[in-house]
């Protein structure tokens, strides 16, 4: 493993991903972890991330010198570079030499491990106030900028390297190459980590964890739960039962994707609960968004628990495990750790113990989203599932402004299917994050169709581009594609006589309308 020491910037996850793109397995650890503990994990290399702007600031995270004396190759970036410099006796000062954003870097290549094969002049991404003016003893300076004399240093003998910039961001043109040079040449690591290893390793681990007991997995139609289920299915076969709650709020064809395609690809045992009527009854007359979300969440848990109980009552070994598609970013954001948690399932159906305690099986805990997709591919899941864009748990229930009825859902499903079809046909699926299609059921406007006046509902298209859904921009889709979607929706979907485009970024608008 390569450890990425997180100094509190948002860059650590990106660095860990870049290391994995270089086919080397990496994990993030907090900078507060004692060095002895880091070393006890036998890392092949350690990377120090960026962080707060000044190593001299009050309360700035520090690092024990012993990290650099353990013989483990270390690569410092930005703050990590400065902390390396000061700890090892170099000079970092606040001389007003600030650099932010794209900056030209001059590389002196002779004998450089990091920069060999890259151009003498290259563009890098800087973000710093202090600057290093003298490298520690024994280090060679291998790059500089107009304002920073020491923008990179290397010590091949001790296997210690550092750069002032952020090689992990894509604006640093040769960043990935420099990182790979550190990993392969500096640290001597072979690029062998692949998602194939992940599948094999996880299958073995799951078998060991579950033994001859049984497990349950809820499928939502999304990528994460599908891949988690497929992995567990590969490991324990018929000891796994998947549960899919059909709440009637899915898009066109999505329930079939789970019922047919997922089962065909994995051979998993699937219990489908048709709960459409129950959800629609509970939602009848409700138009408040929060209210809708609460009702859908509550009903979902009830239906899922009822299904769990039925599985518990079937003949067979004890049902002791619940499979969840937790991903690495969730693990990191909730404080890390490799342990497995227990969760309790409370239910309100008579005849069985008050709480059922499950152990969690979380085979995707070490993976990023793009890696989950690769694992899904490897497991033979259909493209439509593996490449699926995000879709909210409450489904189309929160894409109808107004109260939710079967007729309105059917109408929205048609409009949504047309939009998706045309976006796919135009090859735009990878360019957008997602494109909610919203029915303004409480709004009517006048139109003319054929020879007659119409008084129908508008459909809103909300295509957005985003990195992580925290912020988003509206996608500048080609007019031809928008025109085609508009024409088809107004022609093919009864009661819709207008299509409008949402041109709001997030913030101030959220991606979904409710
Ligand atoms: P907003 O509307 O908050 O959405 O900008 C951000 C992202 O989250 C998705 N979303 C949800 N996903 N359950 C989910 O699983 C939900 O209740 C939910 N609400 C929003 C939304 O589609 C977008 O990708």
UniProtKB/TrEMBL annotation:
Task: Enumerate the GO terms in the molecular function aspect.
Answer: GMP synthase (glutamine-hydrolyzing) activity
Q: Which reaction does it catalyse?
A: XMP + L-glutamine + ATP + H2O = GMP + L-glutamate + AMP + diphosphate + 2 H(+)
Q: What's in the keyword line of the UniProt record?
A: ATP-binding, Glutamine amidotransferase, GMP biosynthesis, Ligase, Nucleotide-binding, Purine biosynthesis
Q: Which residues form a coiled coil?
A: none
Return the SUPFAM superfamilies for the record.
Answer: Adenine nucleotide alpha hydrolases-like, Class I glutamine amidotransferase-like, GMP synthetase C-terminal dimerisation domain
> Boundaries of each GMPS ATP-PPase domain copy?
193-388
Residues annotated for ATP binding in this entry: 220-226
Active-site residues, record numbering mapped to chain: 78 (nucleophile), 166, 168
Sorted alphabetically, which PROSITE patterns does this protein's record hold? GATASE_TYPE_1, GMPS_ATP_PPASE
Which pathway does UniProt place it in? Answer: Purine metabolism; GMP biosynthesis; GMP from XMP (L-Gln route): step 1/1
What Enzyme Commission number does this protein have? 6.3.5.2
Under the subunit heading, UniProt states: Homodimer.
Q: Give the function comment from the record.
A: Catalyzes the synthesis of GMP from XMP.
Protein name, as recorded: GMP synthase [glutamine-hydrolyzing]
Q: Which organism is it from?
A: Streptomyces atroolivaceus
């Amino acid at each position: 493993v390569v450890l990425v020491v997180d100094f509190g910037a948002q860059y650590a996850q990106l660095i860990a991903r870049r290391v994995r793109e270089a086919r080397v397995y990496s994990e993030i650890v907090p900078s507060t972890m004692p060095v002895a503990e880091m070393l006890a994990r036998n890392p092949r290399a350690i990377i120090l991330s960026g962080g707060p702007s000044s190593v001299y600031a009050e309360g700035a995270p520090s690092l024990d010198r012993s990290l650099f004396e353990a013989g483990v190759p270390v690569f410092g970036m930005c703050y990590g570079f400065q902390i390396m410099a000061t700890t090892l006796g170099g000079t970092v000062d606040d001389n007003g030499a600030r650099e932010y954003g794209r900056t030209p870097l001059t590389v002196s290549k002779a004998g450089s491990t990091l920069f060999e094969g890259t151009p003498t002049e290259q563009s890098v991404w800087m973000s710093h106030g202090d600057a290093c003016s003298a490298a520690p003893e024994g280090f060679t300076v291998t790059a500089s900028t107009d304002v920073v004399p020491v923008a990179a240093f290397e010590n091949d003998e001790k296997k210690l390297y550092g750069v002032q910039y952020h090689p992990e961001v894509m604006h640093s043109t040769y960043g990935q190459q420099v990182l790979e040079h550190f990993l392969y040449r500096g640290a001597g690591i072979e690029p062998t980590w692949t998602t194939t290893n992940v599948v094999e390793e996880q299958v073995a681990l799951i078998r060991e964890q579950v033994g001859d007991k049984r497990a349950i997995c809820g499928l939502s139609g999304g990528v994460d739960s599908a891949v988690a289920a497929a992995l567990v299915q590969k490991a324990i076969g018929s000891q796994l039962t998947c549960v899919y709650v059909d709440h009637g709020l899915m898009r066109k064809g999505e329930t079939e994707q789970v019922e047919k395609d997922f089962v065909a690809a994995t051979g998993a045992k699937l219990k489908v609960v048709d709960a459409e009527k129950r959800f629609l009854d509970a939602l009848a007359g409700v138009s408040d968004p929060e209210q809708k979300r609460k009702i859908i969440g509550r009903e979902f848990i009830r239906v899922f628990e009822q299904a769990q109980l039925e599985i518990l009552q079937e003949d067979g070994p004890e049902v002791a495990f619940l499979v969840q598609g937790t991903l690495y970013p969730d693990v990191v954001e909730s404080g890390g750790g490799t342990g497995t948690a227990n969760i309790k399932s409370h239910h309100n159906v008579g005849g069985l113990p008050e709480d059922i305690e499950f152990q969690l099986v979380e085979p995707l805990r070490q993976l990023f989203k793009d890696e989950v997709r690769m694992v899904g591919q490897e497991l033979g899941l259909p493209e439509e599932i593996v490449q699926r864009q995000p879709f909210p748990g409450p489904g189309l229930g929160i894409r109808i402004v107004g109260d939710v009825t079967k007729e309105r859902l059917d109408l929205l499903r048609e409009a949504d299917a047309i939009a998706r079809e045309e976006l796919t046909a135009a090859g735009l699926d990878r360019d957008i994050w997602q494109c909610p299609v919203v029915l303004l059921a409480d709004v009517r406007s006048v139109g003319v169709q054929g020879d007659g006046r119409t008084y129908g509902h508008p459909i809103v298209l909300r295509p957005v581009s985003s990195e992580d859904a925290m912020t988003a921009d509206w996608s500048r889709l080609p007019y031809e594609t928008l025109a085609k979607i508009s024409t088809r929706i107004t022609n093919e979907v009864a009661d819709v006589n207008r299509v409008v485009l949402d041109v709001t970024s997030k913030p101030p608008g959220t991606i979904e309308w409710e």
